[in-house]
Amino acid sequence: MLLAGLAPRGVPARRHDALRGLGAIGDPRGSAAIEAALADPRLTVRVGSIMGCAGVCTSPATIERLADMAIHEDNAAVALAAQKTLAAIRAKGPAEDQAVRSAVDRRRPTALPPNASADQRALAAIFSADLDGPSAIPALVAVLPGASSALQRQLTWRLGGAGDARAVDALEGAPRRAGPDGAGVCLRRPREAARARRGGSGWRGRALRRSEAARPSGAARIVKRGGSAREPGSSARFSS
């Protein structure tokens, strides 16, 4: 049944399901079909292949392709899905971890060309932050003002969850840029901002609780409705 759903001219939603299913099974024999679908012009199919890759893709060429998608996909939710898949591939073993780390290093914000868009730089900062930990805070802060609202929400959630005093100034302005559901809402009160600047341990917990509703549910959790894919909690639809 899964193979029938992979017919090149098949309904995109069925191909999406088949690709995800092959990845979930984890049989390496499905990797060729999943990797080929990464180049499908239909977004719904591409999303299925990205998600399927988490289970079976390990080749350096596929990791490079996913890394490009993680920065250059026009739809931010799809780019973030590629980043999540790469995180799953990293966990497979030392070789895969090193391949993903190398791909990230070649796509840091400072390595992007001068004509890279603000969202590409934001995606690159998020991509690098998964490896860099606290040292990624300055890069996340730097890309926050120019990013689209969808990526600003991602950035404020990450900065709010970090509990790092270096993010305080950016988070104080975040509610105006990212809306009241951003993690920065925890710093609306001056005393909370002052406590955060002092490195108080209490503000991180409030940031996480107050931003829980805005926390990304995982960009890879893309559902299909009416033949299109949609990120839960988002108005963006990914038509095939």
Describe this structure in words.
It is a single chain. This protein has a 3-stranded antiparallel sheet with strand order 1-2-3. It contains 13 helices and 3 strands. By secondary structure, it is mainly alpha-helical. The chain has helices at 2-5, 12-25, 31-37, 43-56, 60-72, 76-90, 94-105, 118-132, 137-143, 149-162, 168-178, 190-197, 202-210, and strands at residues 223-225, 228-230, 237-238. Helix 4 packs parallel to helix 6 (76-90) and helix 10 packs antiparallel against helix 11 (168-178). The protein folds into 2 domains: 2-107 and 219-233; 115-214.
Question: What is the fold's blueprint, element by element?
Answer:
Blueprint: H1 2-5, H2 12-25, H3 31-37, H4 43-56, H5 60-72, H6 76-90, H7 94-105, H8 118-132, H9 137-143, H10 149-162, H11 168-178, H12 190-197, H13 202-210, E1 223-225, E2 228-230, E3 237-238
Summarize the structure in short.
It contains 13 helices and 3 strands. The protein has helices at residues 2-5, 12-25, 31-37, 43-56, 60-72, 76-90, 94-105, 118-132, 137-143, 149-162, 168-178, 190-197, 202-210, and strands at 223-225, 228-230, 237-238. A 3-stranded antiparallel beta sheet has the order 1-2-3.
